[in-house]
Amino acid sequence: MSKTGFSVPREERYFEDYVAGSVHEFGPISLDEDEIIDFGKRFVPQPYHIDRELAKKTLYKGLIASGWHTAAAMMRVYSDNYLSAVANLGSPGVDELRWTKPVRPGDELTVRVTVLETRRSSSKPDRGIVNSLLETLNQEGDVVMSMKMINFMTARQTSG
After folding, report:
1. Quick check: 15 and 118 in contact, CB under 8 A?
2. Average pLDDT per 10 consecutive residues for the chain, totaling 160 residues
3. What would the 3-class secondary structure string for 81-126 be?
4. Where exactly are the structural domains of the chain?
5. Which pick of 102, 126, 147, 149 has the fewest CB atoms within 10 Å?
6. Looking at the whole model, is its pTM more than 0.85?
């Protein structure tokens, strides 16, 4: 599924193509039990991420993906679909990262990106700043993770 709303493919997408108020959806992606356990063992070795039997005895009542695993899966979808392949200059960071609901094995995740604001850089007119709200939703439409992302993008045209 991809309801991008972009008028150009990511290989031709520049700052001007990110329009405040636009909403883009990408996915689905799912995390299976083995992936969740492998990621948990490698990076976040908590019982509810690495052991299906011990996980049943936790407040989650079963195995769940690490929030960092959810973030990594979201980032793959975001990078492959939303970020420009020619104009992305990186990000200084994210704000308001929240994990609002557990992700369980087999959940189908969709990434919804809302462009909150765009502005041309006053000090570097060949680029702009794109502020976006990223929401990761499960198959029920529940938000399981959200954050605000800042990206620097090269502009197609120099303002002036």
Report:
1. yes
2. 73 96 95 97 97 96 98 96 96 97 98 97 94 98 98 83
3. HCCCCCCECCCCEEEEEEECCCCCCCCEEEEEEEEEEEEECCCCCC
4. 2-154
5. 126
6. yes
